[in-house]
Design a protein that fits this description.
213 residues; 5-stranded antiparallel sheet; 3 helices; 22% strand; membrane; Phage_phiNM3_A0EWY4; DUF1523 domain-containing protein; transmembrane
Length: 213
């Protein structure tokens, strides 16, 4: 039983970490090489795509999606999708997809004359599932060696979440100690007494039969 509990514990917290890692903003230092628009037919990976841009008709089969191609400072390519989040999850309230695409196009550069940018995004890149992180903002920086800013928002959100978890856990432990454990102890004591009474009655019946024989 203890192995099942540990398995469920690890699965639960693994899912929590995955949700935070996917949802919270991340920043990449990169060089934008191109921007383009492509018709995407959604399949099993549709959960990793946002809703249509605000004001457009909703569709679950396909639509045109904006993309930003880039090369990170370590030389690895990275492609971002550029979609509105609107009022849906995650709550970035992004409505400026077209403006961001224009800014990204204006910041395109070549390897010979690079313009480095800081791209804020959320989500994952997975070639096998054909999913892309969603770009939130793009701003120019002085060079590839510029340090990323401290992710204060992520720190605050995770700290608040852990405080809430700790508060719930503490109240649960007090409730369990004050209400559940005494009830279980009473039930255990009653069962023990009932079992002992049944044994005593059984011994009495056996003595009665032996006296009759």
């Amino acid at each position: 039983m203890i192995y099942i509990r540990w398995f469920l514990f690890l699965v639960f917290w693994g899912l929590v970490v995955a949700v935070f890692h996917y949802t919270l903003p991340q920043k990449d230092v990169a060089r934008i090489v191109d921007t383009f628009e492509q018709r995407v037919d959604f399949g099993e990976n549709s959960i990793f795509w946002s809703a249509p841009d605000s004001g457009n008709a909703a569709t679950t089969t396909n639509r045109d999606v904006l993309f930003i191609q880039s090369v990170r400072r370590d030389g690895r390519p990275m492609v971002y999708r550029n979609e509105d989040t609107g009022w849906s999850w995650p709550p970035y309230f992004k409505f400026d997809t077209k403006n961001l695409q224009t800014e990204a196009a204006d910041l395109k550069s070549t390897k010979a004359d690079p313009q480095w940018v800081l791209i804020t995004h959320y989500g994952w890149r997975n070639e096998f599932l054909s999913i892309f992180p969603n770009a939130i903002s793009v701003r120019p920086i002085a060079g590839p060696d510029v340090s990323k800013p401290i992710p204060w928002l992520n720190i605050i959100i995770i700290t608040v979440f852990l405080m809430i978890v700790w508060a719930i856990w503490s109240r649960w432990r007090r409730f369990k100690a004050n209400r559940i454990d005494p009830t279980l102890d009473d039930i255990s004591d009653n069962l023990y007494m009932a079992r002992e009474n049944a044994r005593e009655q059984g011994r009495g019946i056996r003595r009665w039969f032996r006296g009759k024989s």
